[in-house]
Structures are given as C-alpha cells and as structure tokens.
Amino acid sequence: MSALSATTVGGLPVRGEGHRASRVRPYSVTGGRTRFGHVLLVETFVAAQEGSESGTGGARSMPETRAIVEVCRRMRTVAEISALLRMPLGVVRVLISDLADQGKLRVYGTGHGTGRPDRALLERVLSGLRRL
Q: What is the pLDDT of residue 59?
C-alpha cells in the first residue's frame, strides 16, 4: 500500500485525504533516515531541474518522490511542498535532499552563510509587514 492515496488535488496525489490512515509509516518512506545533506529550512526554495521527468528514476522512485518533483515544476518552499502533499516536514526534507543529489531538484537560498539571517531580507520583510 502506498503512502499516497488515490485522491488528487490539482492533479497531484494527496496523502491520506478522506481515507483511513495509511499503513506506511513516514519513516519507512525515507528508509528510517532523518538526516539530509542540504540545508533545508522551511523557507528554502526548491524547483525541478529542466528535463526532470517525475515518472523516471531508479530504485528510489516512489509516488512521494514523483509527487515532489511534479509539485516543484513551479518554485516552492519546503513548507509549501509539505503542506500541499500533506506529508510530514521531516520526510519531505529527506526526500528533497535525495532528489537534489540525483539532480532532479535544485535547492535555492540554503543559508550557507554565517548562520544569521540576511539583514537586507529582514528589512524587506519588516517593510512589507509595515505596509500591511
């Protein structure tokens, strides 16, 4: 039984929608792994690489990874991917990291700098909040 149900939203599979809980535990989707090689904050942007086919791939091509590649046809944040596919954030991070290593996804703005937020970005956010 797959972790994704047959239900779709906008053509994308949605995990557990309108069905009883899946028998596949989130940690089994990642092979029990909880660590990932890329810096993947909730606000990190991810997009599918040109030429990435969601249906292709090796042994790790699962419905979850195909759904992530498909949803990333448009640039998304890690949090958006998790929410859209109704998958746990930790699982999404591990799978995104795997897909990036395979060259199917590109990770943007990973915060490899000093570990502190970019001041210019924070000022733009503050300015935007003040306009609200």
A: 43
